[in-house]
Task: inverse folding
């Protein structure tokens, strides 16, 4: 597995990071890095702020903010704010605010406010205020309601539906999660 990591244009000393080839985990506390793991899937990154990532898909990012990501699909991002994401679809984003997202469809976004999203359909959003999504498949802009969870309609269909949070009930000490519809049906059957 070949990769490169530079800081301020120079290769990062191997003493400043760890790389576990068995688990494909890269870890450092360093900032201002350029990490080139092009074509490498399934890598976990633990880094500081102001980093730029070039990777394959199905990676996990645990970083500070103000990072730039160019990845394949199926990735999970746990970051601070001020990041820019250019990814394929089916990704999960748990970020701070002031981020820009250019993604495919089927992504999940849990962010603070002031974010901009350029996506396809089937994406789910839970955001702070002042967030907007531009859908490339229907050529439209939608304001995302603050504090609510919405899911965009399928590819080529404008609009969104509000997603109600699931209900959890306990039966014989086991927690069972029910959708809003299942919960309402159960309530009706017990009345």
Result:
């Amino acid at each position: 597995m070949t990769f490169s990591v530079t800081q301020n244009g120079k290769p990062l000393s191997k003493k400043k990071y760890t790389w576990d080839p068995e688990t494909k985990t890269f870890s450092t506390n360093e900032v201002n890095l350029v990490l080139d793991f092009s074509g490498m899937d399934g890598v976990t990154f633990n880094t500081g702020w102001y980093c730029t990532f070039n990777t394959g898909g199905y990676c996990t990012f645990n970083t500070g903010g103000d990072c730039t990501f160019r990845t394949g699909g199926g990735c999970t991002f746990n970051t601070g704010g001020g990041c820019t994401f250019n990814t394929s679809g089916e990704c999960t984003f748990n970020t701070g605010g002031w981020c820009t997202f250019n993604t495919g469809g089927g992504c999940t976004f849990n962010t603070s406010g002031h974010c901009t999203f350029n996506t396809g359909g089937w994406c789910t959003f839970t955001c702070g205020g002042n967030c907007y999504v531009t859908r490339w498949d229907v050529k439209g802009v939608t304001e995302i309601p603050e504090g609510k969870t919405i899911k965009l309609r399928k590819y080529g269909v404008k609009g969104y539906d509000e997603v109600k949070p699931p209900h959890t009930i306990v039966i014989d000490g086991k927690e069972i999660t029910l959708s809003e519809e299942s919960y309402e049906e159960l309530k009706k059957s017990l009345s």
